[in-house]
Automatic annotation (TrEMBL):
<protein>
    <submittedName>
        <fullName>DnaJ-domain-containing protein</fullName>
    </submittedName>
</protein>
<dbReference type="GO" id="GO:0043022">
    <property type="term" value="F:ribosome binding"/>
</dbReference>
<dbReference type="InterPro" id="IPR044634">
    <property type="entry name" value="Zuotin/DnaJC2"/>
</dbReference>
<dbReference type="GO" id="GO:0051083">
    <property type="term" value="P:'de novo' cotranslational protein folding"/>
</dbReference>
<feature type="compositionally biased region" description="Polar residues">
    <location>
        <begin position="7"/>
        <end position="29"/>
    </location>
</feature>
<dbReference type="GO" id="GO:0006450">
    <property type="term" value="P:regulation of translational fidelity"/>
</dbReference>
<feature type="compositionally biased region" description="Basic and acidic residues">
    <location>
        <begin position="395"/>
        <end position="405"/>
    </location>
</feature>
<dbReference type="GO" id="GO:0030544">
    <property type="term" value="F:Hsp70 protein binding"/>
</dbReference>
<dbReference type="GO" id="GO:0005829">
    <property type="term" value="C:cytosol"/>
</dbReference>
<dbReference type="InterPro" id="IPR054076">
    <property type="entry name" value="ZUO1-like_ZHD"/>
</dbReference>
<feature type="region of interest" description="Disordered">
    <location>
        <begin position="328"/>
        <end position="405"/>
    </location>
</feature>
<feature type="region of interest" description="Disordered">
    <location>
        <begin position="1"/>
        <end position="37"/>
    </location>
</feature>
<feature type="region of interest" description="Disordered">
    <location>
        <begin position="277"/>
        <end position="301"/>
    </location>
</feature>
<dbReference type="Pfam" id="PF21884">
    <property type="entry name" value="ZUO1-like_ZHD"/>
</dbReference>
<dbReference type="InterPro" id="IPR018253">
    <property type="entry name" value="DnaJ_domain_CS"/>
</dbReference>
<dbReference type="InterPro" id="IPR036869">
    <property type="entry name" value="J_dom_sf"/>
</dbReference>
<feature type="domain" description="J">
    <location>
        <begin position="112"/>
        <end position="197"/>
    </location>
</feature>
Amino acid sequence: MAAVQHLTVSTPPVPTSYKTPSVPSTSRISAPHPSGHRSLLPVGPAYVNHLRLSLHHAHSFSALDKHLEAERERLAAIHGESNAAEDDLGVGSEEEPEELLNLDPKEWKKQDHYAVLGLSHLRYKATPEQIKIANRKKVLKHHPDKKASSTPSSTTNSLYLTGVNQNTNDDAFFKCIAKAHEVLTNPEKRRQFDSVDPVFMELEEDIPNATEIKNKNLDFFKTFVPVFELYSRFSKKQPVPGLGHIDSTKEEVEGFYDFWYNFDSWRSFEWMDKEVNEGSDSRDDKRYTEKKNKSERARRKKEDIAKLRGLVDLALSLDPRIKRIKQQEKEAREAKKRAGAPGAPVKKTKQQEEEEKKKAEEEAKAKEEAEKAARAEAKKAKAAAANAAKKARRQQREQEEAAAA
């Protein structure tokens, strides 16, 4: 046990130069009222309550208290609604099915973080402020301390467990809330989760193919407008041009397909990476897992680009505006041919051009045959001249031989 030690402390004397400060004149108490009391004016909440008591409640304090309590509740409800409208920012309140409340926090990569925070109706459109409000609502509702205070006493088996939350599932869901808030408030993790949003993946699987569109005779715009709106969230360039309508101009249609054929997507697939085996400290295992994850990400990215390109090709092949635009271009070319330039010769029809071409071919053929016949005659004349010259030389030799004999 510690011993008590007494110390002798002496205070130094006051210096001789010290003087007591004088009290300022402004701090003096004012003189009393001449009549000995203050006059009271009939104003303020106390006077209003006095009038209510005497005029409306027959001097019954209990009736006045009930009236004041009802008024306070009415004003609180009004202010509560206005504050909720200002602070809620459209977050609202979603139902919590039993399946959602029974989520395992260890399987946090498989859970829908937007559903956990009650943001299923907003999802990737939810702002950071809305995420903050939704998290605060969920924390206030599912905090373990609040759940403990609301635990019925009949469920406890001992006085020592009174007020203690014995429902461990509430704690598990609270951990899911914390993890969802952590993911959605981190821009990088939220981008990874939005890339493989489970609701988006389900909608992606339901996109009809060419056979279904033709067999079911689906409307082009009702089918493809939601599809391109679904993928527009991944575009690095915003805003994304819409599909338009049946009367869209040629420039609008070409701009739309040019954008989607050069679509620049930020979508990635890190969220689907496999984790390194727990308890493994091997560097080789980590390198192998990282290499495998990198290869899988590249494969999924390539498949995603090919799938989107296939959707654009399908839309282009089924777009009714393309046929209309081609027909308009053909009519414009024909009108231009018919009109021609001022002073220029009249354009010939296709039939006239074919007849002239045929006639020219026949003339060329006749000319070629005439030239061929002329060449044959010239050849014959040349051969006859050669024979005549040969005969003349032979006769001359015979005459010379006869003269010599």
